[in-house]
Amino acid sequence: MKKLKRICCCSLIFALLCGAAGCVNQHPGEAAGSSENTEETGESEPKLVATSPAIADITDRLELDLEGVCQTSGDLPERYADVTQVGMPMSPDLEILKSLDPDYVLSPNTLESDLQPKYESIGVSSLFLNLKSVDGMYASIEDLGEKFGREKQAGELVEEYETFMEEYDAENARNEKPSVLILMGLPGSYIVATENSYVGNLVKMAGGVNVYQGEEDEFISANTEDMQTKDPDIILRAVHGLEEEAREMFAEEFETNDIWKHFRAVEEGKVYDLDGELFGMSADFDYPKALDELQTLFYGEGE
């Protein structure tokens, strides 16, 4: 079991450091279903598979049915209660996928470099959605709405988002922006989240200034000495995968590594652990709750 955890952890780190860009990136497979023309004419519904919970939520709100959906320890929309499960988001079962003969498999573009060749090997077309940011998610929603005849549903979702952000930005317009260091904890290790990651995007939307700006990757490695020179006002600790172990790692690191005691944020008690359900790897519709939590941490009473 420990060996399996190490393998999963290494695979996760590789995926985090190898994200792709774009909104909806399309990859046609040689043996893909032939219903694209009928989609455009409205004669039939597309056969779709969603390989992440965030994407399943998107397709549900667009009122799209699925042929297959990912496994998850969380909840999936009721619409997909009896839909065939195709395995975990990072490693969907290719045999099951092929047997479903979908028109498109929908996956996050953070996993594109790993999954696209696998989909191509079984002749399945794929669409990779940009879930690195809230803006990217809604751009992907608009693209899907246009492609699958759900413009009305997509438009309503975008309008809700724009209304929320207008009100949220107005509330924080006069607040002084704090500088923020974001750590992403994995079992046994941690990395720095830049503003190009989803949690980094949320921090930016909330008015925080990432101390590691100008980076191209979503996550980078940095030593504690360099982090200290950034002198962050606030340190946020996010976790992904085996959350309990990751939090224990953070607690031990901050207790035993003496350098943390010299960070101003630590001295002032401004180190906060983020809820893994709200601050995950992919954008989802819980972003208002995440932004409200950051608003409290940045400008109110942090806990």
Count of helices? 12
Largest sheet: 6 strands, mixed
Q: How many structurally independent domains?
A: 2
* CATH homologous superfamily title of the largest domain: Nitrogenase molybdenum iron protein domain
Radius of gyration: 20 Å
Briefly note the CATH topology name of the largest domain: Rossmann fold
- Overall strand count: 14
The CATH class of the largest domain is identified as: Alpha Beta
The backbone outline, from C-alpha atoms, is: globular
- The helix/strand class is alpha/beta
Contiguous uncertain segments of 5+ residues = 1-22, 29-43
Rounded mean pLDDT is 87
CATH architecture name of the largest domain: 3-Layer(aba) Sandwich
For the largest beta sheet, what order do the strands appear in spatially?
A: 1-8-7-2-3-4
CA distance, first residue to last residue: 35 Å
- β-strand percent reads 15-25%
The H-and-E topology, N to C, reads as: HEHEHEEEEHEHEHHEEHEEHEHHEH
Q: How helix-rich are the residues, as a percent range?
A: 40-55%
